[in-house]
Design a protein that fits this description.
403 residues, alpha/beta, 9-stranded mixed β-sheet, two-stranded antiparallel ribbon, 11 strands, 13% strand, L-fuconate dehydratase activity
Length: 403
C-alpha cells in the first residue's frame, strides 16, 4: 500500500516570550505534507499571542479541536487532526521542558483528576465515564513508584520491524532476523500482502532464523478485503504468526471483527491509521481487535492518546504503539511509559515498535538496550530535531532540496 514513501513531516515550534520552545510534528510519506502544513497554519491564529495554561493542557487541546470552522474539515480526522497533533504535542514538549521533566514522567506524576481532565470525553461515555476512568487511575497510584523504578532500570519492551521490509533478499531477511534476536528482541515483524507464495517463503525463512520462541507479527497495511484476509492468514498459520496488523480498512469496525473471528488464534492488531478515539471506542465495543496500536501523531496528540489509553485499559486490551517514520519512536515511547506507570500498570504482551532509522536527526533520540526502550531523562517529549537537520531538509529551500 505504501510502495514509494518519501519520509516527511510537518514541523511546529511554539515560542514563548521567555525564550522557551516546544517542538512537535506530524509524520507523512511525501506528497500531501504541504496539506498538513496548511492545516497547521490555519490553527495558528488560535495559538499565537495567547496565554498557555500549563495546568490546563486538556483545555488547550479542546479549544483547538472544538473550533467550529476548522472542525468542519474533519471532524477530528485527516490532515486537520494530524495538524492539531503537531501543535498539541509541541505544547506538551514545552510543558515538559518548563517542568524539567520528560513527558512520560510529567504525565505519570499527575493526579488521577488531572489525567482525566486531559481527555475529551465527548462521545465516549457510553463506553467509559470519567468516574470509571478515575477509579482505574486511582487503583494504579500505589504501584507508581515501583513501576517507575522498574522502568528506569529495565526500560520498556520493544519489537523490531527492521528485518521485515518487502524487497529484502532472503539472505538479508534471515541475517537481520538473527541479529534482532541477538540484540535482545523477542518479537519481529514482517510486511505481507503483495504475493502469497513470497509471504509463505519469507515467513518460513524468518521462523527458521529465529526459532519457535520468538514472536513473528505480520503487517498487511490495509491490503485486503475481509474474505481474502482470512484466506491469506490461513496459509500463513503453519508458521505461527503472532498477529496480523491492519488486515483491512482502518475504518471497518465490523470487518475487523469478522477477520478476528476468522483468523483466531492469530491476533488482530490495528490502530496506526485509526482516525480518532471514537473509532477506537467502537473497535473495543465490537471486540474487533486483540492489540491496539496507537500513533503519537495520527490522532490529536497526547491528550487524545490519553483518552485512548484509558479506553484500552478499561477493556483490558494491550496497547502496542506504531512507531518508525520520522520521530514516531521518539514521541510514542512517552505514551507507553506513562501507560505502564499510571494507567494499565503492565507491560505484559505490550511492546513498542522500533525501526532503526532517522534517529540521528533528533536532539534526544531513542536509546535501546537488550530489546528495550530506555526511559528518556531529558525534559520534553524527545520531539526536537537538530537545527542542522531542520535547515538542511526544510522544503523547498534546504540544502538537500537545492542540490
Amino acid at each position: 500500500m505504501n510502495p514509494d514513501p518519501d519520509y516527511s513531516a510537518a514541523y511546529v515550534v511554539l515560542h514563548t516570550d521567555e525564550g522557551m520552545e516546544g517542538h512537535g510534528f506530524c509524520f507523512t510519506i511525501g506528497r500531501g505534507n504541504e496539506v498538513c502544513v496548511a492545516a497547521i497554519e490555519a490553527y495558528a491564529p488560535l495559538v499565537e499571542g495567547t496565554d498557555l495554561d500549563l495546568g490546563d493542557l486538556g483545555g488547550f487541546a479542546r479549544r483547538l479541536l472544538h473550533d467550529s470552522q476548522l472542525r468542519w474539515l474533519g471532524p477530528e480526522k485527516g490532515a486537520v487532526h494530524m495538524a492539531a497533533a503537531a501543535i498539541i504535542n509541541a505544547a506538551f514538549d514545552l510543558a515538559g521542558k518548563i517542568a524539567g521533566k520528560p513527558v512520560w514522567r510529567l504525565l505519570a506524576e499527575m493526579t488521577p483528576e488531572q489525567i482525566v481532565d486531559l481527555a475529551d470525553w465527548r462521545y465516549l461515555t457510553d463506553a467509559l465515564t470519567p468516574d470509571r476512568a478515575l477509579d482505574l487511575l486511582r487503583e494504579a497510584v500505589p504501584g507508581r513508584a515501583a513501576r517507575t523504578a522498574d522502568l528506569l532500570e529495565r526500560g520498556y519492551p520493544a519489537y523490531t520491524t527492521t528485518p521485515g521490509w518487502l524487497g529484502y533478499t532472503d539472505d538479508k531477511l534471515g541475517r537481520l532476523a538473527r541479529e534482532a534476536v541477538a540484540d535482545g528482541f523477542t518479537q519481529i515483524k514482517l510486511k505481507v500482502g503483495a504475493d502469497l507464495d513470497d509471504d509463505v517463503r519469507r515467513l518460513r525463512l524468518a521462523r527458521e532464523a529465529v526459532g519457535p520462541d520468538v514472536r513473528i507479527a505480520v503487517d498487511a497495511n490495509q491490503r485486503w478485503d475481509v474474505a481474502p484476509a482470512i484466506e491469506w492468514m490461513e496459509a500463513l498459520k503453519p508458521f505461527d504468526p503472532y498477529w496480523i496488523e491492519e488486515p483491512t480498512s482502518p475504518d471497518d469496525v465490523l470487518g475487523h471483527a469478522a477477520i478476528r473471528r476468522g483468523v483466531s488464534p492469530v491476533k488482530v492488531a490495528t490502530g496506526e491509521h485509526i482516525a480518532n478515539r471514537v473509532i477506537v471506542k467502537q473497535m473495543l465495543q465490537a471486540e474487533a481487535l486483540d492489540v491496539l496500536q496507537i500513533d503519537a501523531c495520527r490522532v490529536a496528540g497526547v491528550t487524545e492518546n490519553v483518552a485512548i489509553l484509558l479506553l484500552a485499559a478499561a477493556f483490558g486490551v494491550p496497547v502496542c504503539p506504531h512507531a518508525g517514520g520520522v520521530g514516531l519512536c521518539e514521541a510514542v515511547q512517552h505514551l507507553s511509559m506513562f501507560d505502564y506507570v499510571a494507567v494499565s500498570g503492565s507491560t505484559e504482551n505490550r511492546v513498542i515498535e522500533y525501526v532503526d532509522h532517522l534517529h540521528e536527526h533528533f536532539e534526544d533520540p531513542v536509546r535501546m538496550s537488550r530489546g528495550h526502550y530506555s526511559a528518556p531523562a531529558a525534559p520534553g517529549m524527545s520531539t526536537q530535531m537538530k537545527a542542522a537537520s531542520l535547515a538542511a531538509y526544510a522544503h523547498p529551500h534546504g540544502e538537500v532540496w537545492r542540490s
